[in-house]
Design goal:
With 252 residues, this protein is of the alpha/beta class. Helices cover 34% and strands 24% of the residues. It folds into two domains: 166 residues, Rossmann fold, CATH 3.40.50; 79 residues, no CATH class. A six-stranded mixed β-sheet has the order 6-7-8-3-9-10, sandwiched between helices. A four-stranded antiparallel β-sheet has the order 2-1-4-5, with helices on one face. A hairpin with a 2-residue loop joins strand 9 and strand 10. It is globular, with a radius of gyration of 19 Å. The two termini are 36 Å apart.
Length: 252
Amino acid sequence: MTGPVLEVRGLSKRFGGLVATDMVDLTVEPGEIHALIGPNGAGKTTLIAQLFGELRPDAGEIALQGRPINGLPTHARVSRGLARSFQVTCLLPDYTVLENVLVALQVSEGHSFRFFRNVHRDAGLVDRSVDLLSEAGLANRAEVPVANLSHGERKQLELVVALSTKPRLLLLDEPMAGLGHAESRQMIEVLGGLKGRTSILLVEHDMDAVFALADRISVLVYGRIIATGNPEEIRNNPDVRAAYLGEGDELC
């Protein structure tokens, strides 16, 4: 397929008198990491929620691989190849790391949960799960219950769970939130390894991560995208500096 993986045109959402999304145009190209940045309250998470089908836009069009998805519920968008990670991790805390990935693979392949007790006997599923965990640096934590993981490890596992569905587009909502320096570097390394393989829309406040990872960056302020460009263009854009950080400040 040629053309964008994601194409958004004129997307708008209001909550009473508050304009949360204001005629947003956005594209994500195949294999691209496209970062979405902006100050708190800019509407980034609201935009992601509309893309994932959790909020219905008031106007505009959303297309995934050239096919409109506006009217589809979340589960149908997932079946079309959309996946998401959240600011707060959504995992099964009483299961091990490996079991969380096995469950995700089962769901993505349409298996019933009643077969979960036998899933460890499926060598193919286990091998694929271990491979995914190895890519994220979690293979040595496979038998650890999720409840015993650090915050950073849970973030990494949630990414693995999202990737287990082989998404055409991965929506990442602040994957660096709450991570320490070493955990952030690990997450940047894992995400960098996905560049060119998985299309990603990355919502993130950590500018070091954004400029290390992004092929393109869009800046959202009060629900409207004020600039889109490569990292150097965004770094040197005076309107972005004024709106995002304050006049005279520098993006790192």
